[in-house]
Amino acid sequence: MTTPVRQAREALGATLREIRKDADLTGRALAAACGWHFTKVSKIEHGTTMPSEPDIRAWCQACGAADQVLDLIATARAVESMYIEWQRHMRAGMKRSQTQAIPLYERTRQFRVYENTVLPGLFHTAEYAAAIFRFWNEFLELPNDVDESVAARLERQHILYTGHRRFSFVLEEQTLRTQVGGPDVMVGQLDRLLAVMSLSRVSVGIIPAGGVRHCLAQGSFWIFDDTRVEVESISAGLDITRPREVAVHAKAFALLQESAVHGAAARQLIQRALAELQEDRE
């Protein structure tokens, strides 16, 4: 199970624990009322066991919280459906994952993006994108549609220049130094990053490797308006739509922005990475 999915299950378990405590019931008392083994309550509350819909109904009934059943069941269904195996999702090739996202990108007015390893797709050059797609194509043993996927990704970048959208990016300094495609590709990609930063609708902050941090976020994520968060891991993708969890990511993003440098200081970090690449090429 990926960390985001585990966190979602733990959040559901924490909500159920609060309902139990509000009812002034011990875990053993609740288990007895529901006819369960006493360890089941603890496993559900800690996210190690996913409650079934009958479990949720019994839990709420025993705690006098029948009015929360429908919301909790909806949350449980969301947790189960948000886990998407990449191999299954991309079995027809990677281009599909690029084109499927277009409607979401088109209707979004505010993008908030945090990346900690590689640069976001909206900034990619063709060479940088191709190197990334080639890796995932081989790693996940997918049909080879690298060229088509690159073209779809570059086409999707038109949203940077159209409509009334705002883009806020926070990048770890590591994204400037992760070698994707070799020094020549990286030089072109960092030049592209500097060019995109000049757009009035785009804000780019970079968190220096040795800087003061106000948030210890562990994984990259994208926030679309205030309605959806997308998190990606090696084997799966996670879509988060529960308002409380979206708000938690928005809070984390604000703290990440506070940790980052912007403007001339951000450009200086990019120029430094470019200078080091130039030295490697000589």
Distance between the termini: 45 Å
Q: What is the topology, as strand order, of the major beta sheet?
A: 1-7-6-5-2-3-4
Work out the number of β strands: 7
Instruction: Evaluate the radius of gyration.
Output: 22 Å
CATH uppermost class of the largest domain:
Alpha Beta
User: Helix share of residues?
Assistant: 40-55%
* Main sheet makeup: 7 strands, mixed
Number of helices: 13
CATH architecture of the largest domain: 2-Layer Sandwich
The CATH topology of the largest domain corresponds to Endonuclease, Chain A
Poorly predicted ranges = none
Mean pLDDT over the full residue set: 89
Q: Report the principal-axis shape.
A: elongated
Number of structural units classed as domains = 2
Q: How would you sum up this structure, described in words?
A:
Pfam families: DUF5753, HTH_31. It comes from Pseudonocardia eucalypti. This is Helix-turn-helix transcriptional regulator. Residues 16-69 form the HTH cro/C1-type domain. The chain is of the alpha/beta class and 282 residues long. Helix content is 53%, strand content 12%. It has a seven-stranded mixed sheet with strand order 1-7-6-5-2-3-4. α4 packs antiparallel against α5, α9 (126-139) packs across α10 (146-156) and α11 packs antiparallel against α13.
